[in-house]
Specification:
eight-stranded mixed β-sheet, 4 helices, alpha+beta, Aminopeptidase, single chain
Length: 178
Amino acid sequence: MKRYNLKDHREYLIREIDPGDAKKFINYRNTLAGESTYLRVSESELDLNLEDQTKSIHNFIDSNNQYSIVAELDGIIIGNLQFRGGSSQRTAHAGEFGISVLKDYWGNRIGYNLLSQLIEWVRKNKVIKKINLEVREDNRSAIALYKKLGFELEGTIRKNFFADGKYHDSHIMGITFE
């Protein structure tokens, strides 16, 4: 667990997700889905229930190549990062993550702190050798964050995302660890 401050000096913490967070996480995801078109699913596509969410959290906790952390302010989840390594022997060393922050808290370095904590975990973990990500090509602030932390552009997938009535390309980025 690490503590950080928002621009307004309120303190939030970043910690590993816990099965007791399932209900708070569902509330977080429902709020988030209505705020951003950068996510893969829209609000109407979410079908989250307490039992499935609790199982999902247990899967993160029980795996040596999965990691889920939350940013929490006054008992409310305001950010999340979930990393999933490959499920087979040949891909277990690499994985992808999703990261999100509630819109009211954008610009407070929460994404930077979440991703920095993932990188720290990977360096200690020694199992993961590669982190991959996919980001919509017009999400400039996210791309700048990823580059700042050492991710490199590896390719582009054309028309990979449909939002706001149009197709968007996605960039594939990655970072390796030796």
